[in-house]
Design goal:
Helix content is about 25%, strand content about 30%. The chain contains 9 helices and 14 strands. Strand 4 and strand 5 form a beta hairpin. The protein is globular.
Length: about 450
Amino acid sequence: MDSSKETYERREKILERHRQILSENAQNASELHEKFLQFRQEGLGLTAKLIQEQAKAAGGAGVSQGSIAGEQAPVLYTHAQLEEFAKGDAVKCLGPAYEVYRGRRISRIPNGDLLLMSRVLRVNGERFQMKPGTEILVEYDVSQKPWFLQDNSYPYAPYSILMEIALQPCGFLSAHLGAPLMFPDQDYYFRNLDGEARLIKNVDLRGKTVTTRAVLQKTMVSGKQIIQGFSFQLSAGGEAFFEGNSVFGFFPPEAMANQLGRDGGQETLPLYEQPGQGDVTGVAIDLASSSLTIAKNGKPFYRLPDGHFNLLKEVVVSPSGGKNRHGYIYANKPVDGRDWFYTCHFFQDPVMPGSLGVEAILEAMQVFALQMDLGKSFQSPRFDLVPGNKMSWKYRGQILQTHKKMKLEIHLASLERTGEQALLIGDASLWADKIRIYEVKDAAIRLVEG
């Protein structure tokens, strides 16, 4: 076994151990975590005290109550401060402790169209103390016509947007607590590793304020790699509609350079590209010249999303293919380094958001449904997310501007049609060139009456 595969397997075992620990009750804290807190608690506490004293000496009310250009901040962090952290001066948002990153690349939150936080109301917990149970409360104001509703085929929030609204506060809580300051001399990349989420119910978010409640569950350290787990819940008007948990990591550059994907660095191929797969027969659709993004007469929502969600170029639909014989979908798209999301995610660290990889998978499933005309029995069909469904994802890499092609495949596990809905559920993988980097379980969409 070569050293790269040994490194991969060792890293996967570490991550799996972290996931096991993250699922335990907070009272059963691991020995590693306890030692980490024991050795760092006093130093971090002194840092926090020093920062507060600096803020008082400057005439301020403390870092957590800061303001920009005289703006009064009735909340913990204003939208202006969030924008500073997204692509401006991080110190203006997070305070003097982040002076150490002056002139250096720093892990950021998304910006522009992908910044889906309006304000941080509060954090229930002390800064620079990674205590399980520390909670952040964030609000996001959805306008009547946000871009992600206009570009979707029906005005509901796509799954990728729900993921971003849920996960961005987790990353910001890490920054607020000072996770990267554990090793201030280290440059970090911040990445989502895996997670799972359940849609409780579909909600029309137009003109509403979404509240995200995210809770730090655990912090683990391996060498200079920092792994953190969070739970999250989205609500609107006091009613919860999306919930789950996720794991993130801070990684040094050398760890990012050695990412080996889901197969230990081995090059693999989707089923459709493998030699001798004659049973994978189906219709190849070029979406650039297809009419699937155009609404049909009397069926305005029976189409694909467009604009920002133009995430695929070619899709192959095999009605009875795949390992379950319920249907198989293959799709690809040449990587264009000028795509809109690279400037938004992240500043000085451009990668395709994992959430948009998940969205591309769901879009390919929509192509299957349209090609098979699964909505023909409905008067005005529309695509919908599936209440009660729990989807999980694992990321072990990202789509960079230097990659040539993004590819994906979906093996449908079930296709159910009733008088009320046409439901598709499947398991998917996504490739960066020849390396499989994402795995998604129980991806689901449905067609219902519009």
